[in-house]
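Hi R.,

As promised on Friday, here is the backbone we talked about, encoded as structure tokens. Could you run it through your design pipeline when you get a chance and send me back a sequence?
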């Protein structure tokens, strides 16, 4: 079969396949199936001061509900912008930083994307979800599940900034995006304020009529910082035999649906990690990608040999299947919040994780990231 004539015939054949919108698997298989995850997502880090200045500038130039549906500056991963992907932190996840000034309102709407919010600074703002007003304090995680009517308001006296995390890329890849504004200024409040917190965050209690079958959305809509901090605090007080420091994550809690123990959001995973002062965690990698926000503390994360130095407020991207290890270089504990796509991968049978075993679990640092 070898020889010049055969090669020329094959080449003509490939061209004729292309003309008919067909392809030869004998040449193209490696494009479709790789031995390990192959992707264009590069890690990146944004300093909080940079983000905050831009968000406050947006506050001077634009009003929510008038000039913009939401006043948000979002994280654009430069490696994905090169591929034409707008609004992507990773292939699946989006994060933005939203600002509301006292007296402002961001109008009601509904969409198929899920959203989680992690309050960064300021008091007095609220989100209403399907007629329930939910007060937001720093460190709280507030859910607006897919297809719930939601709007934001502010009855306080200082700027409020929060992180929005949405499954923008994931939904887009399935062509599953639906959006609708509400026909009216405000969705009617039909439930007592903070109803879901009172009904579902009392330990071991839930309403008898509630359907506890696994499902979504989580009936608890605000996971309060006081509870998160207390949970992590008592973990860190346990003797090593009771609560072990996870070698990769430190002390960590995930946000779950309290009636099922399943994820709080069907598609967006969320986790709060506490890394004690001076601790250098070991590297691992997993298929799921994540967007991190530094709630408190100082340190760095080594991502595929590159050092990403962080301090309070910073955001960084963890791509799929990349080695990473977190280090707290400060003399106080560090809190890292992250959103991820682990649940979707698990449901589809695609999640996998691997510990880094060379060099005691620590990568060699070969470069330092500068934004
Ligand atoms: C959205 O609905 C909000 O409700 C924030 O605050 C950010 C980004 C993309 C799509 C919808 C919000 C969003 C969003």
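Update: got your reply. Pasting your designed sequence below so it's all in one thread:
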């Amino acid at each position: 079969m070898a020889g010049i004539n055969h090669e020329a015939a094959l080449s003509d054949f490939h061209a004729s396949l292309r003309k008919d919108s067909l392809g030869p698997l004998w040449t193209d298989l490696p494009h479709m199936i790789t031995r390990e995850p192959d992707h264009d997502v590069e890690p990146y880090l944004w300093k909080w001061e940079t983000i905050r200045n831009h968000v406050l500038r947006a506050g001077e130039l634009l009003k929510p509900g008038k000039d913009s549906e939401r006043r948000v500056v979002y994280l654009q991963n430069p490696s994905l912008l090169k591929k034409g992907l707008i609004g992507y932190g990773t292939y699946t996840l989006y994060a933005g930083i939203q600002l509301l000034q006292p007296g402002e309102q961001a109008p009601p709407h509904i969409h198929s994307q899920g959203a989680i919010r992690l309050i960064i600074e300021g008091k007095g703002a609220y989100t209403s979800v399907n007629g329930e007003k939910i007060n937001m304090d720093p460190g709280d995680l507030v859910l607006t599940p897919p297809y719930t009517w939601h709007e934001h308001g502010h009855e306080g006296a200082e700027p409020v900034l929060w992180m929005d995390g949405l499954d923008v890329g994931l939904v887009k890849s399935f062509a599953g995006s639906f959006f609708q504004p509400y026909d009216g200024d405000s969705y009617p409040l039909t439930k007592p304020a903070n109803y879901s917190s009172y009904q579902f965050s009392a330990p071991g209690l839930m309403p008898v009529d509630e359907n506890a079958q696994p499902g979504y959305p989580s009936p608890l809509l605000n996971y309060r910082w006081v509870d998160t901090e207390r949970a992590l605090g008592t973990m860190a007080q346990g003797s090593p035999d009771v609560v072990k420091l996870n070698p990769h994550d430190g002390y960590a809690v995930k946000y779950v649906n309290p009636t099922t123990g399943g994820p709080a959001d069907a598609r967006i995973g969320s986790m709060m990690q506490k890394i004690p002062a001076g601790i250098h965690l070991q590297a691992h990698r997993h298929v799921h990608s994540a967007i991190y926000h530094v709630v408190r503390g100082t340190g760095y994360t080594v991502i595929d040999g590159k050092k990403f130095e962080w301090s309070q407020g910073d955001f960084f991207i963890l791509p799929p299947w990349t080695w990473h290890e977190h280090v707290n270089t400060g003399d106080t504990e560090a809190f890292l919040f992250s959103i991820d796509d682990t649940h979707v991968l698990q449901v589809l049978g695609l999640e996998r994780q691997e510990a880094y075993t060379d060099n005691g679990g620590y990568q060699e640092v070969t470069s330092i990231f500068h934004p």
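One thing I noticed while checking it: The domain at 45-368 is CATH 2.60.120.10 (Jelly Rolls).

Thanks again,
M.
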